[in-house]
């Protein structure tokens, strides 16, 4: 078999572009973004619907790519809840879809660990977000 070209699905490219707008994904290369996007799953939530229940351990990292998510009466960060997904910590409160609903991309824990191992800049970005939240 001589050469083989690989076509990238339009949906994966769209997901990669959406993720690129969300720190810490903005630190990834195009190739890394495409790889991550190929493992992301899109979910849509109606206004007031629970995206992630408080007290639960997140089985996925959530990136808000449309609409909004509210936690404790304030807008949630674009990417949440990394400490829960990575370290098995319970989430601090319910994450609820905002007034226009929410469109999110989710990465399951196994993929998240792979990304953390393969993309050091992603981990640096998570640490920077966490440091900003603690400030």
What does this structure look like?
The protein is of the alpha+beta class and 135 residues long. It has helices spanning 10-20, 30-39, 82-87, 109-118, 120-134; strands at residues 41-45, 50-52, 60-71, 74-75, 79-80, 95-108. Mean pLDDT is 88; it is low at 1-5. The protein has 5 helices and 6 strands; from the N terminus they run ααβββββαβαα. The chain is globular and about 35 Å long. α1 crosses α2 (30-39) and α4 crosses α5 (120-134). The termini are far apart. β3 (60-71) and β4 (74-75) form a beta hairpin. Strands 1, 2, 3, 4, 5 and 6 form a 6-stranded antiparallel sheet that branches. It has a single domain (10-109, 119-134), classed as Sandwich (Jelly Rolls). Residues 24-71 form the Cyclic nucleotide-binding domain. InterPro entries: cNMP-bd_dom, cNMP-bd_dom_sf, RmlC-like_jellyroll.
Summarize the structure.
The protein contains five helices and six strands; from the N terminus they run H-H-E-E-E-E-E-H-E-H-H. With 135 residues, the protein is α+β, with helices and mostly antiparallel strands.
Write the layout of secondary structure elements.
Layout: H1 10-20, H2 30-39, E1 41-45, E2 50-52, E3 60-71, E4 74-75, E5 79-80, H3 82-87, E6 95-108, H4 109-118, H5 120-134
Antiparallel strand pairs: 1-6, 2-6, 3-4, 3-5, 3-6
- Name the CATH superfamily assignment: Jelly Rolls
Query: Which structural class do you get from the secondary structure elements?
Result: alpha+beta
* Mean pLDDT across residues: 88
Distance between the termini: 56 Å
CATH architecture verdict? Sandwich
> What is the CATH domain class?
Mainly Beta
Largest sheet geometry: 6 strands, antiparallel
Low-confidence stretches at least 5 residues in length (pLDDT < 50)?
1-5
One letter per element, helices H and strands E, the order comes to: HHEEEEEHEHH
Morphology: globular
The percentage of residues in β strands lies in 25-35%
C-alpha-based Rg, rounded: 15 Å
The number of distinct β-strands equals 6
Specify the number of helices. Answer: 5
Instruction: Kindly state the percentage of residues in helix.
Output: 25-40%
The CATH topology:
Jelly Rolls
